[in-house]
Design brief:
The complex is a heterodimer of chains A (253) and B (173). With 253 residues, chain A is of the alpha+beta class. Helices cover 33% and strands 26% of the residues of chain A. Chain A is elongated, with a radius of gyration of 25 Å. The N and C termini of chain A lie far apart (54 Å). The relative contact order of chain A is 0.15. The model of chain A is unreliable at 7-15 (pLDDT under 50). In chain B, helix 5 crosses helix 6 (79-90). Classes of the chains: A alpha+beta (253), B mainly alpha (173). Chain A binds chain B through residues 3, 6, 11, 13-21, 23, 25-27, 70-72, 74, 151, 154, 156-160, 193, 214-217, and chain B through 82-83, 86, 89-90, 127, 130, 133-137, 141-149, 152-160, 162, 167-172. The structure holds copper (II) ion. Copper (II) ion (CU) is lined by residues 187, 222, 224-226, 230 of chain A. Copper (II) ion binds at residues 187, 222, 224-226, 230 of chain A.
Chain lengths: 253, 173
């Protein structure tokens, strides 16, 4: 039934990350795990609030209907106790949400002694990457551009609008620092399963760190509207073992 | 508010519907009848039904009578008086009269259905002129995509590459 509806009404055919996915992608880094935990934690309060507000609204609708209470008690317009209750309770709920939220925010903000640095530059409409810690045979740092694969070049199940010609290859279990900027307009370097999202501002360097816990390919998309092909400059981060990473570096020489 | 100007200064400037519906009456002569609670009861009983047929002067009289009544302890008001006071202040008359006579739900429903149908037609037209689905939207390619994602170890905790995965992966067709 849902599939029938989707085929009737869906103006775009969803084919990635997974069809009809409504939850998070599986976490690949401690930060993504933290974000998903915070989401679940806040959801607990959301349910409490939903039940409380729903109960109040529902009981008003049921008990003060036209039939049960034809004369509205129109002069009941002030009650100090109830006002105190409904002011102070939300304040406590907000505090309970704010503490874990700030804790995570400042943990994510910290870039602690990274083992390697990758520079990311957003262009209209592709990404370019520079591995300044490594040099090739000519003594220049490794750099390359990363374009989306056009529809006509897709083969063997490559993901449309997500796969790129040159992936960012990184080692697992390594503290990696991304230094990001924009070459022309604002872009945003993002990867949901790594909990990564950072603006690329022209004339400014932003930094963030990521620690990938498992091998795999992690897809993201530019997340700041940057022009007509904003939707066609995906990010593909490939996490590999250290040995594979070193041989990839060699092949870049 | 021409109606307020036509009223004597002594009236409190509360623009209740009773006064507004009084607007058409030319220079009213107001005589505040001091009524007792029990004496007013028959006149006020079932005011909802009789209100519209009352001439404007009498509506105003009832309104004033109720105002006087409400200056005293409300707990001593009879149910009829309470109901009348509520109806005059908040009932569906004057500016609060329903904009549409009853029994027009069918018309509303038909017009709404027509609008929805028109919107759906427009949508269908736009869809019929749009480009077809991408070449990747075939069952064969979707199966390939699932295999490709498995080979890349994607979503290994709960998704396609997870142990004992039962879903259909990328296959939607
Ligand atoms: Cu963009």
């Amino acid at each position: 039934m849902l599939e029938l509806l989707s085929r009737l009404f869906s103006p775009v055919y969803c084919d990635a990350p997974e069809p009809w996915q409504i939850g998070f992608q599986d976490a690949g880094s401690p930060i993504a795990e933290g974000i998903q935990n915070l989401h679940n934690e806040i959801f607990f309060y959301l349910i409490v609030i939903f039940v409380g507000v729903g109960w109040v609204l529902g009981s008003v609708v049921v008990n003060y209907s036209q039939d049960k209470s034809p004369i509205v008690y129109k002069y009941a317009n002030h009650g100090t106790l109830i006002e105190l209750v409904w002011t102070i309770t939300p304040a406590f709920i907000l505090i309970a949400i704010a503490f874990p939220s700030f804790k995570l925010l400042y943990l994510m903000d910290e870039v602690i002694s990274p083992s390697m640095t990758i520079k990311v530059v957003g262009h209209q409409w592709y990404w370019s990457y520079e591995y300044s810690d490594f040099v090739n045979d000519d003594g220049e740092s490794i750099e390359f551009d990363s374009y989306m694969l056009p529809e006509s070049d897709l083969e063997d199940g490559q993901l449309r609008l997500l796969d790129v010609d040159n992936r960012v290859v990184v080692p697992v279990d390594t503290h990696i620092r991304f230094v990001v900027t924009g070459a022309d307009v604002l872009h945003d370097f993002a990867c949901p399963s790594l909990g990564l999202k950072i603006d690329c501002c022209p004339g400014r360097l932003n930094q963030t760190s990521v620690f990938i816990k498992r091998e795999g390919v992690f897809y993201g998309q530019c997340s700041e509207l940057c022009g007509v092909y904003h939707g066609f400059m995906p990010i593909a981060i490939e996490a590999v073992s250290m040995e594979k990473y070193l041989s990839w570096l060699d092949s870049q020489g | 508010m021409s109606i307020l100007r036509s009223l004597p200064r002594t009236l409190p400037r509360v623009a209740t519907p009773a006064i507004r519906s009084y607007a058409s009456a030319a220079s009213p002569s107001i005589s505040v009848t001091s009524t007792r609670s029990n004496a007013s009861a028959p006149a006020l009983a079932n005011i909802e039904a009789s209100w519209k047929s009352l001439p404007a002067e009498e509506q105003f009289e009832v309104y004033q009578q109720l105002e006087e009544l409400q200056k005293r302890d409300w707990k001593e008001l009879s149910v009829d008086e309470k109901k009348a006071a509520y109806f005059v202040a908040f009932g569906p008359h004057g500016p609060r009269a329903p904009t549409m006579p009853e029994g027009n739900t069918q018309k509303v429903f038909l017009y709404t259905a027509a609008a929805v149908a028109a919107a759906f037609g427009l949508f269908t037209f736009a869809r019929s002129r749009a480009k077809g689905p991408a070449p990747t939207v075939t069952r064969e390619y979707q199966e390939q995509m699932t295999e490709y994602m498995r080979s890349q170890n994607q979503n290994p905790i709960s998704g396609v590459s997870s142990e004992g995965y039962k879903g259909k992966g990328m296959v939607t067709l």
